[in-house]
Amino acid sequence: MIRLFSALVILCALIVLPALPTSAYQQSDNQKSESQKSDTKKENTKKVDTKKGDGKTFTAEQVVESVILVYGSRPALEHIRRNGVERGKITRFNAEGAGEDANYERRFIRGESLEKDKIRLDQKLPTMEYSLVYGGGKLCGLINGATFTPRQDAASNFISQHLHSIDSLLRYKESGAAITLIGKEQQKGLDLYVIELLDKEKRKTRFYISARTLRVLWLEYEDAPSNGGSVQVKYTRKFLDYRLVQQTLVPYHMILLEDGKQTQEVHVMTVTFGSKVDESIFSNPEA
After folding, report:
1. What are the distances in angstroms from CA 137 to CA 111, 155, 159, 171?
2. Gyration radius (Cα) of the chain, Å
3. CB neighbours of 116 closer than 8 A, spacing ≥ 6?
4. Tens of pLDDT along 4-61?
5. C-alpha distance across the termini of the chain, in Å
6. What residues have CB less than 8 Å from 209, skipping those under 6 apart?
7. pLDDT in tens, 85-122
8. How far is CA 271 from CA 48, 178, 210, 243, in A?
9. Are 91 and 101 in contact (CB under 8 A)?
10. Cα separation of 226 and 232, whole Å?
């Protein structure tokens, strides 16, 4: 059934976005994107025509709506992913490149927009356990049932990764964001659609989408650095190891880079959508 569903989704995407150019690849998009060390340098980037064989040009909406179909369709994403639980491992790297591992559990309830989502991220490090709770556009921390104010860099990093995410593209209409097709590029043998998203708060995110599979391979945005500095840095998030979960597409491996240097890696172990999530876990015990 999963194979049949996957075939139908790809067929639907091709109907919405006809005559997508295809190429023969010896490696998968994920394998190639992971090996890229300087994907966006101009000397390695070649502009490619965005027109179809009949001379008509694709629109940003055609591309993004086709991406949504490939990820599971808007009704499936809205209903299947309304709430859920994700578990895995986060590795964070310091300035010297040393990594620190933490097991995590992420529980969420989807809101009408990204800002109205409710998220609780429980993390277990070798020396401590703590939680970050996001709701109403605000973030607080919990340790042993007591609240604390997360460091500015940790809070900014958490919120930025939520607002600059694949979900922000899949839910662009619900969030009132504007999308623009920047063009089509060829990088390291990959044909890519480049979509820029501008949300209501004027935050920009660029998505690099495989023209072959219509999967988001990576995204880019600029924000304050996680070390608390004042100079804006360029963030890149790569998405690898895509798998079908309850008829929707989920990346199981994510890499975060700051100005080209890896600072975080996430390996998802399990994802379950539709599981009951108690709303009380998102409340501030001191409120």
Report:
1. 11, 11, 8, 16
2. 19
3. 136, 137
4. 444 444 444 444 454 444 333 334 555 554 444 444 444 344 444 555 544 457 899 9
5. 47
6. 63, 67, 192, 193, 194, 195, 215, 216, 217
7. 999 999 998 888 888 999 999 999 999 999 899 999 99
8. 37, 30, 24, 10
9. yes
10. 10
Q: Which of 251, 189, 172, 245 is nearest to 216 (CA)?
A: 251
**Checking phi first, is residue 252 left (phi over 0); if not, alpha (psi -120 to 50) or beta?**
alpha
C-alpha dist (Å) from residue 138 to 95, 201, 226:
28, 15, 18
Burial label for 156, CB within 10 Å (0-12, 13-18, 19+), is middle
The closest alpha carbon to 279, from 49, 110, 150, 151, belongs to 110
User: What residue ranges define each of the domains in the chain, with the CATH number in brackets?
Assistant: 2-19+44-282 (2.50.20.10)
- In angstroms, rounded to a whole number, what is the distance separating the alpha carbons of residues 181 and 197? 9
Q: Name, in order, each residue with C-beta under 8 angstroms of 7's C-beta and a sequence gap of 6 or more.
A: none
CA 136 to chain centre: 20
Longest alpha-carbon distance in the chain: 63
- CB atoms < 10 A from the CB of 165, how many? 19
3-state SS record for 168-211: HHHCHHHHCCEEEEEEEEEECCEEEEEEEEECCCCCEEEEEEEC
Two tokens, residue 66: 């086709």
Q: Which amino acid is at 279?
A: E
The 10 Å Cβ neighbour count of residue 69 is 22
